[in-house]
Amino acid sequence: MRIITADSYLEEERNTTTLEQDNQNLDKTVLEIIQKVRQTGDQSLYDYTEAFDGVKLTELLVSEEEFTEAAELVDGNFINSLRQAKQNIEEFHQKQLEKSWFFHKSSGITLGQMITPIGRAGIYIPGGKAAYPSSVLMNVIPAKLAQVEEIAIVTPPQKDGKVNPYVLTAAREVGVDTVYKIGGAQAIAALAYGTETVSKVDKIVGPGNAFVARAKKWVFGDVAIDMIAGPSEICVAADGSAPTAYIAADLLSQAEHDERARTFFITNSTTLAEKVRNEMYIQLEMLERKDIIKASLQDFGRIIITKNEQETFDLINQIAPEHLELMMENASDKLPFVKNAGAIFLGNYSPEPLGDYFAGPNHTLPTSGTAAFSSPLGVYDFMKKSSIIQYSQEALLKASEPIIHLAETEGLTAHANAIYQRRDGKNAQK
Amino acid sequence: MRIITADSYLEEERNTTTLEQDNQNLDKTVLEIIQKVRQTGDQSLYDYTEAFDGVKLTELLVSEEEFTEAAELVDGNFINSLRQAKQNIEEFHQKQLEKSWFFHKSSGITLGQMITPIGRAGIYIPGGKAAYPSSVLMNVIPAKLAQVEEIAIVTPPQKDGKVNPYVLTAAREVGVDTVYKIGGAQAIAALAYGTETVSKVDKIVGPGNAFVARAKKWVFGDVAIDMIAGPSEICVAADGSAPTAYIAADLLSQAEHDERARTFFITNSTTLAEKVRNEMYIQLEMLERKDIIKASLQDFGRIIITKNEQETFDLINQIAPEHLELMMENASDKLPFVKNAGAIFLGNYSPEPLGDYFAGPNHTLPTSGTAAFSSPLGVYDFMKKSSIIQYSQEALLKASEPIIHLAETEGLTAHANAIYQRRDGKNAQK
Fold it and tell me: Which residues bind substrate (chains A, B) (predicted)?
């Protein structure tokens, strides 16, 4: 893991390609898959699952027996932990619920904003060998709270043709019965356009690999998507008050996600920088996924030395990290300096895994600097707004002059006519 | 304008291509433009402006003198109307401002959602011959209320190399000084990636032609966008109580936007359907833009006869119209049946132009059925959320078991290690 200055980090950044460029090379494959799914529906889903996941399925939908079987495979400890997490996630997201509002602007005028849930949501859960029951909770709970009527999960099957039992159990715990054994770009295409078996949805959310991310970009517009997720990232900013072992452990925890995970440690103490690096090498050796961690740290790990706190926060806002840990004295007093971050963890006892699994806020967060303009997944992702306008005859007549002026300035005379008809009533019929 | 049944409308719809498919044929040109702007910056902007807008510019930025000159060209009536509209738009959007919130979940635990503005917004305003000062208001005001620090407008120049004076005056009225004479895909690329003159923004909003819409899709992910706008549309649903002339005028006003604008009239009264069609032919003849209107109605106008009110609302929700006018008795009582619509106009005296220019709610609305999952442009488009998590040592230790369980279930042992380090402290150093 390299130790560099803030300036040299910024210079490095200027020379990297963007997420958009990185992914254009997938387009040929991804577009072909989308096209095929639109043309041949279910058949293409069976074919791609055989080709990519190595499984010949006879059914796409997970059966009731499979749910039952899964429930028998998971242990009680897991269920208890899952339920505690679920409760925390529900409590936090409940607070995101927004209400429709109306107001009477003046006599005869009512304006408002009506909030309604989307009709159908599709949730992508990564699969194969790994199990991500936490992603099931984080993606389904906000949709349920928004009162989305239909929720379907898609997830690639294991080699034995089954879905990971932890994922299935989590799905049942949050009340989702519709789980399809489909992964990759083909799953996104099926959700976006529908097939014989899979209903078209209004919005697709959830993390996935590069093919999934790219397919989401392509179907975006015909359907809503949550975000185009890049590799996961953490930024720990610490002063001398933070325990070295904690900093090291948190950086390592992020690096284990995958070889492209990005890890930043920012401090103005060179001593602390050295100590953290040494501690990372010690802890690393006892970690199962040390090969992934080493690769990730080598390519995408940076310890950045800043001149002062101002530079630290400038850099944080420039990186706009998915996860930001502030391990500083009086960390919560520093919040006003943070402009861009997906989730902010304050103090020495708020490590990222607390947020990944348990605390309540969502773990689906904007990556690759998109926290500069995006938000964590939330209840608001599953709701939409409609404006309401109601004028009385008198109120409209009073407003007629400026409307006609503006319409005529824009050369839209038929717009003006809609007002003239009501004001002058030449052709008004009943 | 054809009169058809709801069933035959739905059958027609199933056989049309999607917005996404329609636009893929622009990709070659659009991607080439984006690439060029990234490579050669300002120079490419001058070149494309010469090629596409027929103007050889010497400056991209509108000068102070040009603002002054514009102010002298516009009339007082326009300014007064603009200011009344501005006040209404500000009053409505003010109510969309959200507050950050925090709560103490239990002893030692603080969770929250912090809301901050995006840093820089770029606003596309269509140009050339037409003037859209109303779009300046509708796009800038929510950004200003969100306290976006830097706002830049891009708009294609007129043949004389100047920007429409109404657009410039509107920009000044809402406090935007940075206006670039750039249009098309090249303007979107400049905003997304920056050039020598144009600063890279965090989000691009505003309406544009097909090239602009497609370029927005391509840069999406590297930068946020509001939506991918398709042709504008209206859906008027009326019962026998609605004046024929008003319905006809409102349908015509939508059709004048462009040849691809979509116009729906839904009613269960065949008599009303016939009367409205006849009235449209009468009013049409006196309208300036009758050629556009005729073309639009012929290709994209539909009068749809439904069997009953239930079918009317099912159809509305299926179309998910950008603008919905309910000209029915007790129109506001019907609101609960509307699931999908960008803006809803209630009663006989709330015609669409009232919303386009004046009432206060935004006129940038989801088109082409995307109201099923998208919202009007609003203050929320210029803000983003960050989650806040702060646990005390005691609170974390109490939560340690379930976090470790869940992390280990997912095979992420370095995540578990971040908790172990804090609980068991084997390597904890200070």
Answer: 232, 254, 257, 323, 356, 410, 415
Active site residue B322: yes
Interface confidence, given as ipTM, is: 0.94
Tell me how far apart the alpha carbons of residues A228 and A366 are, in angstroms, rounded to a whole number: 8
Instruction: Write down the CATH number for the domain with range A23-225.
Output: 3.40.50.1980
User: Would the CB atoms of B409 and A119 count as touching at under 8 Å?
Assistant: no
What is the residue-level pLDDT of chain A in tens, covering all 430 positions? 888 888 888 887 776 666 566 667 788 899 999 999 999 999 999 999 999 999 999 999 999 999 999 999 998 999 999 999 999 999 999 999 999 999 998 889 999 999 999 999 999 999 866 788 999 999 999 999 999 999 999 999 999 999 999 999 999 999 999 999 999 999 999 999 999 999 999 999 998 888 999 999 899 988 999 987 778 899 999 998 999 999 999 999 999 988 888 999 999 999 999 999 999 999 999 999 999 999 999 999 999 999 999 999 999 999 999 999 999 999 999 999 999 999 999 999 999 999 999 999 999 999 989 999 999 999 999 999 999 999 999 999 999 999 999 999 888 999 999 999 999 876 543 3
Catalytic residue among A233, A323, A352, A363: A323
From-to residues of CATH 3.40.50.1980 in chain A: 23-225, 230-373
- CA B394 vs. chain centroid, Å, equals 47
Q: A166 contacts in B (CB within 8 Å)?
A: 409-410
The ranges of chain B annotated as CATH 3.40.50.1980 are 22-225, 230-373
Alpha-carbon distance of B292 to B295, in angstroms, equals 5
User: Which of B91, B372, B389 is the closest to A354 by Cβ?
Assistant: B389
Buried b (16+ CB within 10 A) or exposed e, B198-237: beebbbbbbbbbbbbbbbbbbbbbbbbbbbbbbbbbbbbb
Whether B104 sits among the annotated catalytic residues: the reply is no
Helix (H) / strand (E) element for B316: namely: helix B309-319
Contact predicate B151/B121, CB 8 Å: yes
Q: Do B387 and A223 touch (CB under 8 A)?
A: no
Please give the CATH superfamily to which domain B22-225 belongs: Nitrogenase molybdenum iron protein domain (3.40.50.1980)
CATH no. for A230-373:
3.40.50.1980
